[in-house]
Design goal:
Keywords: Hydrolase, RNA-binding, tRNA-binding. This protein folds into 2 domains: 197 residues, Rossmann fold, CATH 3.40.50.1470; 51 residues. 39% of the residues lie in helices and 17% in strands. The longest helix is centred in the C-terminal third of the chain and has 34 residues. The chain has a 7-stranded mixed beta sheet with strand order 3-4-6-2-7-9-8, sandwiched between helices. A two-stranded parallel sheet has the order 1-5. Helix 3 runs parallel beside helix 4 and helix 8 packs antiparallel against helix 9. The termini are far apart. The chain has 292 residues and is of the alpha/beta class.
């Protein structure tokens, strides 16, 4: 009986393929076969802080060997195109493509009118499940060199991106924004001259073709388009909801504290006029709480 059971067990084991307990990971599929990197800047002010979007796509051009820029009068853009192999960890959903079309774009109209460049380009390259757009631009409200990548959202005060959002309309949530921090000048009076001044040597080095910033942004683009197994797509790196709620509560507390302090000052003046003494501290306590 024992011998028969042993023989049966051996037969069962022989039918199990090697490594059956650890099957190979399933390769995710993708529909994306066209990536558009739209760098915002001013062709009349190259290599300036306000043209960092142009600086970065220039570095992409050299790093990826896409040749030279070609001027398209109809599209009001400078265009460079090429193809790259599909990342190893993904399969084409249709199985009909094994490479990715990459289009780099620089706007020809001034920064504030960048939408005039995007509009004709979008007519020829509409946003759909197989085409993914990335907009690269400078950002005053982030420290120099800080890179923020988010899907959709506001322009963050950047007028070139604002112009593009006016063209994108409801499709903005289907695109990515890559903000590159340039820091702020010492006074808002100097903002215009600050953004139009040349990039510093460290900035240009950081975003040269083999620079750390260029490589980081390109890797983030690939990860957003083709997430690695087990990872999530890149989302907004702005404030978390909890942080925003906390900031809102603190703002409300500061407002209440100010109103209380004003009321206490009025009572103090009235007490002084009548010769009475008055000491209020509730407003100060609220102010202390709003700072914590």
């Amino acid at each position: 009986m024992a011998t028969r059971a042993l023989n049966t067990a051996q037969k069962v084991r022989s039918t199990i393929p090697p490594h059956a307990s650890t099957p190979p990971p399933v390769r995710p599929t993708t529909h994306i076969n066209h990536i558009v990197c739209f760098g915002l800047g001013n062709l009349t002010h190259p290599r300036t802080r306000h043209s960092l979007g142009h600086v970065i796509v220039d570095s992409f051009l050299d790093r990826l060997g896409l040749g030279i820029w070609k001027k398209s009068a109809n599209l009001k853009s400078m265009i460079a195109e090429g193809s790259l192999p599909l990342p190893d960890h993904v399969d084409a959903a249709s199985g009909h493509f094994d490479s990715v079309k990459l289009t780099l774009v620089k706007n020809i109209p001034p920064m504030n009118l960048a939408g005039q460049s995007l509009q004709p380009f979008l007519r020829q390259n509409p946003i759909n499940r197989s085409t993914l757009y990335f907009f690269l631009y400078d950002h005053l409200d982030a420290e120099e060199g800080k890179i923020q990548i988010r899907r959709g959202g506001s322009c963050g005060g950047q007028k070139g991106m604002k112009s593009c959002l006016g063209v994108l309309g409801k499709h903005d949530k289907e695109t990515y924004q890559i903000r590159v921090g340039i820091g702020k000048p010492s006074s808002t009076d100097f903002t215009a001259s600050y953004v139009l001044s040349r990039c510093t040597a460290p900035q240009l080095s950081y975003f040269r073709p083999d620079g750390e910033g260029t490589i980081s942004i390109w890797n983030s683009i690939l990860e957003a388009a083709y997430p690695s197994p087990g990872s999530d797509k890149i989302v907004s790196v702005g404030k978390k909801k909890e942080d925003m709620l906390q900031a809102s509560a603190a703002k409300k507390l500061r407002k209440e504290a100010k109103a209380q302090k004003d009321a206490e000052r009025r009572k103090a003046r009235e007490a002084e006029a009548t010769g009475e003494s008055y000491s209020g501290s509730e407003g100060e306590q609220l102010m202390d709480r709003s700072k914590s």
